[in-house]
Amino acid sequence: MIREEFSMPQPVVQGAPKRGGPRLETHDQRGSSSPKGRSPVGRHRAWLLPLLLAVLLVVAGLLCVKMLDASGLKARVLADIAGVRSHEGGTYSLLNERRGDSVGSRNSVAVCQKLVKLKPTDASAHVILGNAYAQMERTQEAMASYQEALALDPNSFDAHVGMGRAYFGQGSYAEAIVSYRKALKIRPRAADAHLSLGLALSNAGKYDEAMQAFQKAKELDPSVVETQVMTGQAYLKAGMYAQAIESFKDAVQTDQEHAQAYFNLGRAYLSVGDKGLALEQQRALQNLDPRLANQLLDMINQ
C-alpha cells in the first residue's frame, strides 16, 4: 500500500504504558486506521500522488479540447454570436435586422477571428467571419472573407449567398444576381436564395424574372410572408396593381401583424384610386407602426 510504503516506524517513547495498560493516543494516531503513524516527510510524500493525478487530468482535458471536431467547435462559437447567421432569411432579413448593439457586433467579429485562426482551411469558418463583418457593415472585409471561403470551397453555398448580399448592399445588383444564381445551382430548393435573387432582380428592373424568383420561393416555402410582400412590391413597380393587391392580401393573411404588408397594400389600393380601402389599411397600421400609419395617411390626403 502507498501509505505503508512512505511510512516510518513510530519511535519508542520511554515511559510508554506497558501492553495491556491504558493507551495514550497521540494526535497522529487519532482517526487513522493504520496502527503505524507517519512522519512529516511521509505525509508530504503521500499527497504528491493526488496532485500528480490532478495535473494529468488537466493536461488530458486540454488535449481533448484541441481534438474537438470542427462542427462542435463552431456550434459553441455560434452560440456566442448574436444575430450572425449563415443564410437564413436571405437579403431581406439582413437589411432589416437591428444593428444597435455595436459592442456585440465587435465581440462577434473577435470570436469569429479566433475561429478562423483555429480552422484556417475551413471554408465555413471564413463564411461565419464574413457574416460578422457584414453585420457591422464592413463590406470589403466581408467580401474578402467570402472570397477566401470560395477559394477553399468553390461550392460553398453560404459564401455565394454572402457575396450576393455584399454586392446587393453596394447597389451592384448585376453582380448580386450572378452570386445568387451560383448559390442556387448548388441548392436549387433554397427558398431564401430565390427570395434574395428576386429582390436583386427587382432592383435591377427585371420585374418579370423577379416575380418568377418570388413565385419559386413561395412554392418552396409558402409561409414566408416576406416572399409575398416582395412579390407585391415587384408587381407594384411593374404597374400590375391587381396582382400586387393579391400578393399583399396574401401577406396580411399570413401574418396579421406585418406592418409592411398593410402599408404596401394601402399603397396598392391608392394606385387604383381606392382611398377607402387604403384608409382601412392605415387604421390597421395605427397599432402596429404609427410612423407607417402617418406616412400612409399623408399619401391618402395628397
Describe this structure in words.
With 302 residues, the protein is an all-alpha fold. The chain folds into three domains: 1-57, no CATH class; 72-202, Serine Threonine Protein Phosphatase 5, Tetratricopeptide repeat (Alpha Horseshoe); 222-302, Serine Threonine Protein Phosphatase 5, Tetratricopeptide repeat, CATH 1.25.40. Helices cover 69% and strands 0% of the residues. The longest helix has 19 residues, at 48-66.
Topology:
Blueprint: H1 2-5, H2 40-46, H3 48-66, H4 70-79, H5 90-96, H6 102-118, H7 123-135, H8 139-152, H9 157-170, H10 173-186, H11 191-203, H12 207-220, H13 225-237, H14 241-254, H15 259-271, H16 275-285, H17 290-301
Q: What average pLDDT do the residues reach?
A: 76
- Major sheet: none
Output the CATH class name of the largest domain: Mainly Alpha
- Beta percentage is under 5%
The outline comes out as elongated
Count, helices: 17
Q: How many strand units?
A: 0
Query: Could you give the distance between the termini?
Result: 97 Å
Q: What Rg is obtained from the alpha carbons, in whole angstroms?
A: 34 Å
Describe the structure concisely for a colleague.
The protein is mainly α and 302 residues long.
Keywords:
302 residues; mainly alpha; Serine Threonine Protein Phosphatase 5, Tetratricopeptide repeat
